[in-house]
Amino acid sequence: MTVEKRNPIPVREAIDRVVSQNIYTKQIEVPLEDSANYILAEDIVATYEIPRFNKSPYDGFALRSKDTEGASGNHRITFTVIDHIGAGSVSEKEVGPFEAVRIMTGAEMPKGADAVVMLEQTVEDKQSFTIRKSFDINENVSLKGEETQIGDIVLNKGQQINPGGIAVLATYGYTHVKVFDKPSIGIIATGSELLEVGDELEPGKIRNSNGPMIVALSQKLSLDVASYQIQEDDLKSSIQVVRDAMSKHDIVITTGGVSVGDFDYLPQIYDAINAKVLFNKIAMRPGSVTTVAVADGKYLFGLSGNPSACFTGFELYVKPAVLHMMGATAIYPQIIQATLMEDLTKANPFTRFVRAIATFNGKAMTVVPSGFNKSGAVVAIAHSNAMIMLPGGTRGYQKGYTVDVILTESQAYEMDCFI
Amino acid sequence: MTVEKRNPIPVREAIDRVVSQNIYTKQIEVPLEDSANYILAEDIVATYEIPRFNKSPYDGFALRSKDTEGASGNHRITFTVIDHIGAGSVSEKEVGPFEAVRIMTGAEMPKGADAVVMLEQTVEDKQSFTIRKSFDINENVSLKGEETQIGDIVLNKGQQINPGGIAVLATYGYTHVKVFDKPSIGIIATGSELLEVGDELEPGKIRNSNGPMIVALSQKLSLDVASYQIQEDDLKSSIQVVRDAMSKHDIVITTGGVSVGDFDYLPQIYDAINAKVLFNKIAMRPGSVTTVAVADGKYLFGLSGNPSACFTGFELYVKPAVLHMMGATAIYPQIIQATLMEDLTKANPFTRFVRAIATFNGKAMTVVPSGFNKSGAVVAIAHSNAMIMLPGGTRGYQKGYTVDVILTESQAYEMDCFI
């Protein structure tokens, strides 16, 4: 058997090939309360203005600005309180000269009034108060339509529904919303060396950690995942399991069995199911043998059996694919720049991804590897909140260099940042 | 009625007061498959080495390094293949002089062998192959224990179980793990101006958007949330609803009704339930009236009724509190620095938080406000993936300044970043 020659492509091109496939999930309608993390399949248009009416942004007194002219510390002006309204109520009175309505945050401005004096800016008596400064027209008033006008697109097709999106939909009374369905994922951890988590260890074998890791990575994207039985390295049954998983899921992920070798059946499986291989070698470490194929409008990801490579492959290729299938416009991981706090001097012709801890130290964003970082490493993944991205080449990277970093978790350890 | 005087404290001190409370959830044991996002209540110690045995990181041939001495392009050395092992198998043969075992990625090194030649580095014949370079002892071998030794702490108490953590637990055979329970959250959207999402609009009223937004924010933290009925602004029934929510939840969040004013019952509610108020004024915009109290080992958050202020209050105070209660060591939001791409010249004595879009443009991290950004704004929250944090003072901020940014969502729009 000869060694298959594979042609490595750059990371960026690999991601491009993945997200340029004409593969989308179907459009469905979901209730508002279940819509978080879905991608909108329609623009949401403002059906009324926000604010819907001129309203007070503070607790205070609504009055006529022209009555405040000339007010000062030496010349306080007195107003008579003629009504008292909470949010949700509307005063039936009209504010006349040197009159005011006591008004709560969010309440509609009464007729006649065009400014709000905050409680803190007054000296109150029983039915009156005085002020010591003048107010402009519309001072301390949230004007009708200042945020959105009727017909404004307030949420865009392709936008992920985040908590703010939920608030916008609620505001406009959307009890249901049209979205792209979430893809379902089937996971097949391949390799006859794999034991289940509850199994006792046996010589030469290890427990399956990639399967549970991919389930957790998928759940972070709010996706449903089914795990398929670990396969003996047998071609015929492997094809059957992949076929079975593909009939039930939009994405099928295999881990392991993607190396170029005698016991690697993936190429033959892809042949058997008529899959089109987008690439089977990427100029990256770890995970250079990561393979992505498509068949019947579905994605097949062949991730490495090495945990760090498997993790990296999921973050770089599966995640953008999921967001692409769901019609999202923002599909790439957040990249930041940080100061490297350790030497990484080993040069590599391929782009290197290093599991890492990124922290803002109050002055600058810093990043260090999160531990032993070979392809097969697993512990460093657990301790990372980021991946350092080192362009390939003939040089290494020294402490103090600025490097690009992909954030993979949202929490940080320090609060040296807060003012 | 007089205006209550409140003393604003800095954001950092407010967060400090919240996370220094001696309030923790109880410890529970959960199955591995449900353990994602929980915080570990125990150190996880390595019960065996990783790797457990010397193994091959590549598909290739295991041989004795000393037999490769002197190999070159002009002097190829030939090896005879005596066995053939896949991952999970162990060769029963011992490698002798100029012998080799064909070995797959992850397989245990056979006796006698101390180096691996990658397939790509060989010219193969039927039962033999030649090489053109020499190999060092342990070259291309993953050594037993090189990642972890027995007794190493591989996951720390207080660490959040991320997908990598799941992989580590699976590796060591933990089918169950001891964690801090997740706090349950009760949400009470207060204010008689509030309609339900499905209600028709009425004069002076708006639909409740903060309630659904907080549910979504809580779900992002994998928390269960119960929503309580919107209250008429009536003190007695309000106290009863808060008492009821507190009897069932670890955290009770109210939105609205926290302004200093006639219809604000929160201070009286806190009195009635003997709550200790940690602060009721923060030197921040929006959300300066955000109030946090504790009672009976539970948190009460009084968030603003203004959507942007409510969102900001949740991100800054509720989120760290949740992580603190769960025993987490990393409880602060990730802060980065970015170049401001728009003038924000309005000076403010308080720290300002501006909903924003952060993007790496291939050269630098940039950030712009995500739209109309007053306290009452809702649409800009939906379009944001970050918050700009502007220290208070007498000056504004100009385009080109470097500012601190809190990341609130993980996706980005551009891929100008990838090499």
Description of the molecule:
Two copies of one chain form a homodimer. By secondary structure, the first copy, chain A, is α/β, with parallel strands linked by helices. Chain A has four domains: 11-25 and 182-325, 3-Layer(aba) Sandwich (Molybdenum Cofactor Biosythetic Enzyme, Chain A), CATH 3.40.980.10; 27-50 and 147-180, Molybdopterin biosynthesis moea protein, domain 2; 60-131, Molybdopterin biosynthesis moea protein, domain 3 (Molybdopterin biosynthesis moeA protein, domain 3, Beta Complex); 335-407, Beta Barrel (Beta-clip), CATH 2.40.340.10. Chain A is built from seven helices and 27 strands. Chain A has helices spanning 11-19, 163-171, 210-220, 235-248, 266-272, 307-325, 379-382; strands spanning 27-31, 39-40, 44-45, 60-63, 77-85, 99-103, 115-118, 123-124, 128-131, 153-155, 176-180, 185-190, 194-195, 206-207, 225-231, 251-255, 276-279, 284-285, 291-295, 298-303, 332-333, 335-340, 351-360, 365-369, 386-390, 402-407, 411-412. In chain A, strands 7-4-6-5-9-8 form a six-stranded mixed sheet, with no helix packed on it. Chain A has a six-stranded mixed sheet with strand order 15-12-16-20-19-17, sandwiched between helices. In chain A, strand 8 (123-124) and strand 9 form a beta hairpin. The first copy, chain A, is elongated and about 90 Å long. Chains A and B meet through helix 1, helix 2, strand 14, helix 3 and helix 6 of A and helix 1, helix 2, strand 14, helix 3 and helix 6 of B.
